[in-house]
Fold this protein.
Amino acid sequence: MSGRISVKYVNLPLQYEYLKDDIIDKIKNIFYKGDFILGSEVKNLEKRFARYCDCKYALGVGNGTDALFLVIKALNIGKDDEVITAPNSFISTAGAIANAGAKPVFVDVRDDYNINPYLIEDAITSKTKAVLPVHLTGRPADMNPILEIAKKHDLFVIEDAAQAIGTEYNDKKTGSFGIAGCFSLHPLKNLNAGGDGGMITTNDLDLYEKLIKLRNHGLRNRDECEFWGYNSRLDSIQAAIVNVKLDYLDEWHEKLRNIVTTYQEKLDGIVSFPRDKSRVNSTNHLFMIQCDKRDELQNYLSKKDIETKVHYPLPIHLQEPAKKLGYKEGDFPIAELQSKRILSLPIYPELTDEQINIVTEEIKNFYSHNN
């Protein structure tokens, strides 16, 4: 149809167009200095990131998955150990546990897509070493009961905050609750690089000092290795890009909250979605609805030039690598039902009111003709 306005699921070129002069200047400066790996931009970002998350320490790593993996390794969690997490995250959450040598143990979720704290204790065994809640969609997991259970059973709490930079729960930011917080700087995240990147936050000095070495081959200094480590260093170009964007993050989050409010007002009673509870301030990395006839709706919207995604259509416990864990369909009914009903609508700061209206009107049109 001629003249139709399309609505992309993401539109990173729009963000770049707004910031390109600052980004290019930063990158040019790095090339002039030859300061490419763990350089001044990385150190600056680490200080700013720690301050933003209300933590004492932060360090840059290669990506969000490495952040999880390195924390698990640094805590000496491995063979014959178990880590409890949710089955509805991206595969990398459980993958980091498994690749560290430990066993992922899953617990079902609640209506807000986050792990159900009141099912955790039933999953704890003598082998359990940590709980790894995922702040999915930028909405915080219910941390108070999780922390109480972890303290009772002497377990580490490791936060997967890949989608939740800046999210607040009881006036505290994600990444500041557990022994460590793990963040992704992937281009699709709210705070994003021009490629892969990750951050770890912690208030534990011993853990921080171990991670500094672990991300860089276990090196004590340039010539001496203290233990076998890994190569997962955030490079200066990615850090420079993130340093530019960090200045705008709170402004972007406010725009995302306004978009969510508009979506909720226009779609109330047509589809369902969680709402923030008291003393919760989500950052809305995703706006995920639950709806009948999900696949038909997604196909209909696609024909109207509206892009949507599903996060995620197959829960982790039903993925091929998880078969050896012994789970089966029906073990986590909430997560499984949600996987058949969830749909992520376009949400990014540059989304216009006209585009939001197009999305909501087409969803209404679909259901008016398919009830």
Notes: The chain has a mean pLDDT of 97. The chain is about 40% helix and 15% strand. Residues 248-368 form a domain with the Aspartate Aminotransferase, domain 1 fold (CATH 3.90.1150.10). The chain has two domains: 20-246, 248-368.
